[in-house]
């Protein structure tokens, strides 16, 4: 006896918040969705794209959709999974086939396909003849360098429009950057009111269907209480500005000793290498069972004013001893070293350390400084960062004090001359432990529960 297939009915009103009605019904060629975290703008776009494709599939037509992220290696964990989630909600998972090399999700019967690309592979993207395109989605639009990057690809897709479509419908989704002068904030403001554009705003406060869970709300409230400006920026999607000082030092919490009701379960090392006149610094950070991130110890060597400066071979030995001593201290015995991060531009120390000890130091994948700083802001706003006022002693030269770490972070500031620009810069003075901390947060974002 044949088993009857269960029929799935997709109810728009149960899956799309009323705030997004204008998006769901939009007949505009260009749709810009900006909003805070947990606003579900990306989910709505994914659902709408699947719905649009289904309309063509039911007519027996082949229709294609292109989804683009700035960096290709972010596709799997974001838009690729999101489209599969949307297909499942429509009860059509069995009718599509997903592949990862290349990233595609294809309707088995009609050949209708979701194509996924990274803008970082622009030539491949530009040369691909897809045809029958009905829609294009740029996810995390703020990652792109300028609106010109969109223009370069849009024309290519417009030429490959489906014959039955009046136009290719474009979607952008992004969290507004903190800086009001960021190009995408100014672009969206400029497009507001344009005849062919829908500019839509959303936040978690627009959720009327209960998608934001109590656990999410509790976490949002914690960040709201710790750093209200960061809450406005991340969750309300407001470009709150940068101010002068980069960090709120009240969020750097001192500890006289490790918590008695918690334990360090993992260690993370981070290095900012110096040159002839600049300092070399290492930090060791502990992640606890309860999710605290604690600066345990800092190494800081400055060659300034010294005639006999340390060579890479000496700095390599210092790093080895710093890791050996701090990783085996009894207070966190058994904690595993998870990562050793270094400035990706610091080749001398990296190569020397591998030559001496056969151990790779992992170069940080650098982004714009303002974007990397946001990883630190996320950790601080969660109220999870601590530092030992007096590190447990190792007896090593240039170590056993976190004081310079705190002093450099107090001084860390934006260059006032660049604040009202699309490319704000920091003052590059006394910032070695600052960079080292940024590298640690960026390189270990997933382990630390950071999402920017």
Outline the secondary-structure elements:
Layout: H1 12-15, H2 21-24, E1 30-35, H3 41-57, E2 64-69, H4 76-89, E3 96-100, E4 103-107, E5 113-118, H5 122-127, E6 133-139, H6 147-158, E7 169-174, H7 183-191, E8 197-202, H8 214-226, H9 228-235, E9 253-255, E10 264-272, E11 280-288, E12 293-301, H10 312-327, E13 336-342, H11 347-357, E14 362-363, H12 369-381, E15 385-388, H13 403-411, H14 432-443, H15 445-448
Parallel strand pairs: 1-7, 1-8, 2-5, 2-6, 6-7, 9-15, 10-13, 12-15, 13-14
Antiparallel strand pairs: 3-4, 4-5, 10-11, 11-12
Helix pairs in contact: 3-4, 8-9, 10-11, 12-14
Tell me what the structure shows.
- By secondary structure, this protein is α/β, with parallel strands linked by helices.
- The chain is 34% helix and 20% strand.
- The strands form 2 sheets. It has an 8-stranded mixed β-sheet, with helices on both faces.
- 37% of the residues are buried.
- The mean pLDDT is 94.
